[in-house]
Design brief:
Elements (H helix, E strand, L loop, with lengths): L37 H6 L9 E8 L4 E9 L1
Antiparallel strand pairs: 1-2
Length: 74
């Protein structure tokens, strides 16, 4: 499972040596230019819309690929 969060307000210090690499600030207009996994790229536009969303993906173990994708927005 992957959980993502977005904020419009931040205070404190960003961890410099976190286990997931160095965090950087990116202008949202430049997101489409960044390398990212297909599943992350799929959910990115929903972060900038009102409401919440869920994405359920069926994994096909035989082909090692995504199967059915269901997106629910609330």
């Amino acid at each position: 499972m992957i959980f993502n969060y977005i904020t419009t307000d931040f205070s404190g210090e960003v961890t410099k040596d976190g286990p997931e690499g160095e965090p950087i600030w990116v202008n949202k207009n430049e997101l489409d230019q960044l390398p990212m996994q297909k599943s992350i790229r799929r959910r990115m536009p929903f972060f900038f819309e009102e409401g919440t969303f869920e994405i359920h993906i069926t994994w096909d173990e035989g082909t090692k690929e995504e199967g059915k994708v269901v997106i629910r927005k609330t």
